Amino acid sequence: MAEHDEYTIGQHLQSQGISRRAFLKFCTAMASALALPPSAALAMASELPGKRRPSVIYMSYQECTGCLESLTRSFSPTLENLMFNVMSLDYDDTLQAAAGFQAEQAREAAMKANWGKYLMIVDGAIPNANNGYCTAAGKSALDSIRETAKGAAAVVAVGTCAAFGGLPIANPNPTGATMVSDIVTDKPVINVPGCPPIPAVITGTLAHFLTFGKLPELDQLKRPIAFYGNTIHDRCYRRPFYDQGKFAKTFDDEGARNGWCLYELGCKGPTTYNACATVKWNGGTSFPIQSGHGCFGCSEPGFWDRGDLYKPLSAGLWHGNMAAELGTAAVAGIAIGGAAAMAARHRQDAHQKKETK
Amino acid sequence: MPLEDIAVSVYDPRLDNSPTPNVQALLNEIATHLVALLEDGEGSSIDLRGLPLMPGEREALRNALGRGEISARVETLGEAEIHETAFPGVWWSQHRDESGDTVAELIEICLQPAMLTSHPADVGNGLERLHRLIDSDTTTV
Questions:
Q1: CA-based angle B94:A215:A77, to the nearest 5?
Q2: Is the torsion defined by CA of B28, B31, B37, B40 positive or negative?
Q3: Contact A255, A267 (CB under 8 A)
Q4: Taking 50 as the threshold, does the pLDDT of residue B52 lie above it?
Q5: Which end of chain A is less congested by CB atoms within 10 angstroms, N or C?
């Protein structure tokens, strides 16, 4: 581990020229984002500076790097970057300068020095069908996640790919992609889904774990309730139009121009739990519905396979590949029919042979 | 049937100066916290962003509390504006990031908000810089 990691968080803040007053502001913003009591900010600001920066290991697998882009290109860079003063990011193959064996040595050294205490962040789904898929530094993704998770205090699955499989798990799932919680079963797993997740949701979840040393309250899909406790529909500013039965029928009709509800245009807001409608994107500027497009439901499991993105929820959700499954049924039907025909043919042949004799 | 025969009254909050139930509840909560501050020296805060306030209620609360003698602007990681309300010990603080977006908005019930207090660690750093300034030939560090 690098020498600076022996410093406490307070010493690190001081070396970066960040005052305790600025840190108190950061803690106040984090407490507010996490719906913690305001007094928690004072506790965080007084307790954290005396602690060592926790080690964080960031592993990427089948992903597009959109989640890391979301985290590092957030609209409020200084506040979000303060996160990197609170934690010691010891391995991230996208951000770090080191490559090859030096990078792997850094990861192994961080794991050894912080065994049982480091936080592991996983970005991307893990291919499970063939142990050779997604090989890095001579290790398959499956071996790599198992090895790194072994010494972790907890694992944060960032993005829908890591949390629920995302795009890689979509039919026909050629790599046998799977989600983190199916592989890491003996450690606490926190899911932070979204394609990508909102930057404040990622940093808020990390801040909670780093400051309190325990998981935030989670829902049944292991998502932090502070951010995933309500549906997009519950907090949507277009909700009154839904209640009044006023719906846009096309993207350019009078209803769309009047900002009516996008339910009939396929909005998945009623079944999607996320903070887009309240935290919003681009520094609180907007979110998809505010820009005139329905919610895709990207923070829910299996969203790529839920059928037509532009059909209303009332049209039903098909959790699978209809064409493929119908195809399989047809093949099965043909096979059964073929076997029956063969049996009939065999009976006919036997009868004819008997007649001939 | 003419409209006036239908038993419906239209409520316009702009014409009503009495506090809404939410504002009334918040004023009562502040009063309770003030009692705790006076009797036990215990400070507390209310996170306004965590409350489901209706449009106009934040302004109504702001108007009800008024402004007192102290107003401070803190410039660190974006601006923060902190002012004492017309009720001593009740402070309204709004924290913005560098883009001007509000990241926290609190009503603090205390003798002095922590944000306006110098931290010993910062004082120590400042003292080091002051010593360097005294020992150097220049007037800036």
A1: 40
A2: negative
A3: no
A4: yes
A5: C
Contact at CB, B76 and A21, closer than 8 angstroms:
yes
Which residue among A20, A25, A39 places its CB closest to the CB of B119? A20
- Lookup: tokens for A178: 């799977």
Pairing of strands B102-109, B90-96: antiparallel
Q: Which residues of A touch B121 (CB under 8 A)?
A: 10, 14, 20, 49
Strand partners, B105: B94
Q: What is the CA angle A76-A77-A82, rounded to 5?
A: 110
A279 part of contact set with chain B, CB < 8 Å = no
The complex scores an ipTM of 0.79
Over residues A208-256, the pLDDT tens digits come to 877 777 788 999 999 999 889 999 998 888 888 898 999 999 999 999 9
Q: What is the H or E stretch that residue B73 is in?
A: strand B71-75
Q: Does A33 lie at the interface with B, CB-CB under 8 angstroms?
A: yes
**CA gap B114, B80 in Å, rounded:** 13
Chain B nearest-CA distance from A31, in A, is: 9
Please provide the DSSP assignment of A147-188 as one string.
HHHTTEEEEEEESHHHHH-TTTTSTT-TT-EE-HHHH--SS-
Q: Is A282 helix (H, G, I), strand (E, B) or coil?
A: coil
Q: Which of A25, A32, A283 sits opposite B47 (nearest CB)?
A: A32
Interface membership of A161 toward B (CB under 8 Å): no
Spell out the residues 6+ positions from residue B13 whose beta carbon is closer than 8 angstroms to its own: B20, B56
Higher pLDDT, A80 or B23: B23
Within 13 Å and on the Cβ side, how many CA atoms surround A175?
Answer: 24
Q: Tokens standing for A44?
A: 């965080």
Range in A119-133, A280-294, B18-32, B48-62 the model is least confident about = B48-62
pLDDT digits (tens, 9 = 90+) for A97-146: 888 888 899 999 999 999 999 999 999 999 988 776 888 888 899 999 99
Instruction: Identify whether the C-beta of residue A238 lies closer than 8 Å to the C-beta of residue A261.
Output: yes
Contacts of A137 (CB under 8 A, 6+ apart): A100, A101, A103, A104, A144
Q: Cβ of B114 and A24 within 8 Å? A: yes
Q: What is the pLDDT of residue A350?
A: 53
Instruction: Report the gap between the CA of B32 and the closest CA in chain A (Å).
Output: 16
